[in-house]
Amino acid sequence: MDLSVISLLVLAAVVAVGFIKKVNLGFLSLGVAFILGTIGGMSAKQIAAGFDSSMFVTLVGVTYLFGMASQNGTLDLFSKKIVALVGKNTVLIPILMFVLSAFISAIGPGHIAAGILMTTFAMYLAMEMKINPVITALFAKLGANAGCASPLSLTGILAKNLSEPLGYSGFGLHLFLSTLLSGLVFTVIIYFAYGSYKVKADNPLKLSEIAKFNRNQLMTITAIIVMVVFCIGFKFDTGLFAFVAAAVLILLGAADEKAAIKGIPWGTLVFICGVGTLINVINKLGGIQLISDLLTSMMNAKTAVPILAATSGILSWVSSTTGVVMPALYPIAAEVAATFPGVSYVELISALTATSFAAAISPLSTGGAIIMSSYSASRETTNEELNKIFKQLFLLSVANVGVNIVMAALGVFNLGGLFY
């Protein structure tokens, strides 16, 4: 049997065993990745390269800093003040999370920086309000993804730079609106599917009844604001800057270092990066390409847009949208547009970009990963609970990709040809 087929069967077996035995999929995946990679002729260095160290550092840094903010009561008090401003209008929280995240993402920082900051805040806010924390955080991440393709943001700039050598330009507004529409559609679906329109806070508060921030809490808020300014305004790495902010708080005695370290969800981080390592091995052995080739072999003028959208979604589950999917598929989109008369390049890249970001709420991506790590950092969790959240986020990611494929098939991403 071909190694590409075997690798896909192994992935299915690992996921099944993890859920049945209720073990940490990360540790299991690392062991299986080594065995599978070795059989496939990969060196230990090549196998280990699939462990996303950048994501790991980002998750550790952010959860470490926000762990301090949680430990010294900053997040709890800040959340109470936000709850007091909202009052009993809990239905506004999901809308607020989506709109604010989309706005921050669109003005420059993009989906990663805006997503990490807003998702983490949304998680702690939901905990305080006693509403669904995973779904509330998901609204924030959907907003960050929806706004990320603006001409001012990294994704929009990348799309322009990739397309101009291919002979295409002037589609910035179209791409932005397409991605924004994609995120908004699924947000509305989730809003009603999870009954967010009828959730009420159990603990309405008044600002006059809430204590003021103390010295340590004010310093913590200042550190987080400084991090937001530098990461959004000056493009500093969010994870690494979080360590700087945390170090300053420790030196000023504003937080308990030992308590913050204990609060880092190490098991969740290994869970996320371990599964990613196995996926990378499967990708190297041709498993992902096998699925992608199967899809593209069925392509014609009528199915080109939805099939390319589906391909981008699948690739995004195992790789970066901006680092892999867009650079790999934009040239293919140009070839498809040249091959099939009537198929628009702008519609193709709009569909594949939006669908790729639709998949990015998966726990295998930074978006889903930060939701899981924030959840673990804010409360005690078990492997069974982590597996459940992993499954929930991945299935929501699949559903989001499915919605975008349907939108692509219906020609929605053409936007009537009004913006190009």
Throw out a few tags for this protein.
mainly alpha; 74% helix; globular; 420 residues; 0% strand
Structure description:
This protein has 420 residues and is mostly helical. The protein has one domain (3-417). Helices cover 74% and strands 0% of the residues. The protein contains 20 helices and no strands. Helix 4 (53-71) runs antiparallel to helix 14 (266-284), helix 11 packs antiparallel against helix 12 and helix 16 (304-318) runs antiparallel to helix 20. The longest helix is centred in the C-terminal third of the chain and has 27 residues, at 383-409. The chain is globular. 51% of the residues are buried. The mean pLDDT is 85.
Structural class: mainly alpha
Helix content: over 70%
Mean pLDDT: 85
Q: Give the overall shape, derived from the CA principal axes.
A: globular
Beta-strand content: under 5%
Terminal CA distance: 48 Å
The low-confidence runs, each spanning 5 or more residues with pLDDT under 50, are none
Number of domains: 1
Order of helices and strands: HHHHHHHHHHHHHHHHHHHH
Q: Biggest sheet: strands, sense, closure? A: none
User: Given the structure, what is the number of helices?
Assistant: 20
Q: How many β-strands, per DSSP? A: 0
Radius of gyration: 22 Å
Architecture blueprint of SSEs:
Elements: H1 3-21, H2 25-39, H3 44-48, H4 53-71, H5 74-86, H6 92-106, H7 110-129, H8 133-146, H9 154-163, H10 172-193, H11 215-233, H12 238-251, H13 257-263, H14 266-284, H15 287-296, H16 304-318, H17 321-339, H18 345-359, H19 366-378, H20 383-409
